[in-house]
Amino acid sequence: MQTIQTQVISDELRDRFDRAQSVLVLTGAGISAESGVPTFRGGGNTAVWRGMPFDVISSATMVQRDLAAVWEWFDYRRNLLQNLRPNRAHDEIAHWQDRFPQFTLVTQNIDGLHQKAGSREVVELHGNIWRARCVNCNARVEILTDKPRPDICAACGDRLRPDVVLFGEMLPPGAFETAAEKAADCELCFVIGTSAIVYPAASLPEIARSAGGYVCEINPEATPLSNRCDEGLTGKAGEVLPLFSKS
Ligand code: APR
Predict the structure, then answer these.
(1) Is the model's pLDDT at 149 over the cut of 60?
(2) DSSP state of 6
(3) What is the per-residue pLDDT across 80-89, written as a single tens digit (0 to 9) for each?
(4) Active-site residue 126, yes or no?
(5) Atom of ligand 1 minimally distant from the CA of 39
(6) How far does residue 40's CA lie from ligand 1's centre (Å)?
């Protein structure tokens, strides 16, 4: 693997970055790896819970079968996250929202670290671990670090579940549509820290590229998307992204 010192941003990318009016960023678990959040597949250590692969415990079926077990898994992950801080990659992206006239941040992450870094209007494709949602009326409630997690919906009295998209479930209404619209309208699209195998999120770079956007992937490992990008920066997001604010 190339060491970061040799990783340079091409003149083409530098020029497009300096001139861009509309930018879209898609992030995955890899952007939070340097904050200590386990990724699901490549790079960092992968997640298995009580012998169950994450896509079993994190599934709609498990909510039906054993909601308490699902909560136990998400309570564990939330407790892990509680003391973790955004890293330089999150911070850099938070700055970009005020740098580009049109800026869209789309994330597959549920960890809330983009928001903790100051990113606003984050398009959350897979929900957020710091929220619960009613299984009946869909009312949402924030989960606070200094209060016990609520179990029962204050509006209708039914049970609350994690407000996270689980395997076998649809994305939140409108989230992907908004992201796809912005992708089709961006000049520059960054794909950061995702294995690019989970759809429909993984289709966003292709939407951007087929609409004429310049697509740049940032990842220490190759992904199925790597040979369908205009440029790849091989390295960790927390080391590569700060290069953009260096002229
Ligand atoms: N910087 C950038 N990328 C990194 C880093 C890093 N420091 N460390 C690891 N990566 C890369 C890995 O090489 C891998 O390609 O991040 C990617 C993480 O991939 P996954 O674990 O598959 O995470 P993600 O792509 O976000 O998964 C998509 O799958 O499990 C579901 O809902 C879950 O949102 C998740 C979705």
Answers:
(1) yes
(2) G
(3) 999 999 999 9
(4) yes
(5) 21
(6) 6
Across the chain, what does the average pLDDT equal?
93
Query: Which residue matches tokens 């994305």?
Result: 171
The whole-number pLDDT of residue 35 equals 97
For residue 210, count CB atoms less than 10 angstroms from its CB and return exposed for 0-12, middle for 13-18, buried for 19 or more. Answer: exposed
Q: What is the pLDDT of residue 75?
A: 95
Q: With CA atoms as reference, report the closest residue to 188 among 244, 114, 246.
A: 244
Residue pair 230/218 in contact by the 8 Å Cβ criterion: no
Q: Which residue has the higher pLDDT, 223 or 55?
A: 223
Q: Is 193 in the pocket of ligand 1 (CB under 6 A)?
A: yes
| Residue 34: DSSP 8-state | G
- From residue 190, give the alpha-carbon distance in Å to each of 13, 16, 31, 164, 210: 11, 12, 12, 24, 15
Q: Which residue has the tokens 């997690």?
A: 149
pLDDT at 1 over 80: no
Q: Which of 26, 34, 39, 74 is the best mutation target for the ligand 1 pocket, counting ligand atoms within 8 Å of the beta carbon and taking the most? A: 39
**Residue whose CB lies within 8 A of the most ligand 1 atoms, among 219, 233, 240, 241, for a mutation test:** 219
- Residue with the smallest CA separation from ligand 1 atom 17 is 194
Whether 44 shows a pLDDT value over 50: the answer reads: no
Q: Quote the tokens at residue 77.
A: 């992950």
From the CA atom positions of the chain, what is the Rg in Å?
18
pLDDT band at 53 (very low <50, low <70, confident <90, very high): confident
Task: Tell me if residue 145 falls in helix, strand or coil.
Answer: coil
